[in-house]
Amino acid sequence: MNAIVNVTTHWGIGKNGKLLVSIPTDLHRFRELTIHKTIIYGRKTLETFPGGRPLPDRENIILTRNKEFTAEDAVICHDLDELKSLLRDRYSENLFVIGGESIYKLLVPHCEKAYVTFNYSELKADKFFPNLNRNENWFVSAIQPTQIEGRTPFRFVEYTNTKPLPL
Asked: In angstroms, rounded to a whole number, what is the distance separating the alpha carbons of residues 107 and 52?
C-alpha cells in the first residue's frame, strides 16, 4: 500500500476542511499515480471532491465509522478489520491512501511507500500528515529537484518504509 500527499514545510495538509495549496503539476501527478488503482480515504475527504462525488476511473474505498453513510460509486468500510478483509487479495502497489488526517494516521504505518509533494510554504494548518522524517522506519528513496509553479516552490519526494505493518 502507498500514501500520497501534498504537505507544507510543517507537514500540514489542510485547514478548515480545505487543502492548503493546489498545484496543477501535483494534481496531474496524483491522477497519473492513482488512475485505474484503488484509493482509500475518509468521508470528510470525499466532501472536498468536486460535487462531493468519488473520483472517476478509480476504485474508491471510503473508511468511516458512520454506519449509515452511503456513497454512490464507492465501497464503504467501517473499521480496519473490514478494510483488511476487503484488501486481502489486492496487489499492494495498486492501493493508495489519500487522506485525511485520521486515515493517514491509521494507515501510513501499513504503507510501503509515500509519495510526498513538499510545497515550501508555511501556511497555518489544522490537519497534518505524520512527519516521516521523525520515524526511523522511513527513509527518502527518491527526490526530485525543486520546481516553481505560480509562486509556490515544491518538490516530489518518495519515502520507503523499511518495516510496514501487515494489513
From this structure: 23
pLDDT tens digit string along 44-96? 999 999 899 999 999 999 999 999 999 999 999 999 999 999 998 888 899 99
3-class DSSP state of 54: coil
Which single residue is written with the C-alpha cell 489486492?
90
Q: Report the half-sphere exposure of 27 (CA within 13 A, side-chain side).
A: 8
116 in a structural domain: yes
The structure's pTM equals: 0.96
Whether residue 167 lies inside any domain: the answer is no
How many separate domains does the chain show? Answer: 1
Cell numbers for 76: 464503504
Weakest-pLDDT range from 5-9, 49-53, 126-130, 145-149: 49-53
Residue 37: band (very low, low, confident or very high) from pLDDT cuts 50, 70, 90: very high
DSSP 3-state of 66: coil
Return the CATH number at 109: 3.40.430.10
| Structural domain harbouring 67 | 2-161
Q: Are 95 and 1 in contact (CB under 8 A)?
A: yes
Domain annotation covers residue 53: yes
Say if CB 26 and CB 141 are below 8 A apart. Answer: no
* Residue 38 included in any domain: yes
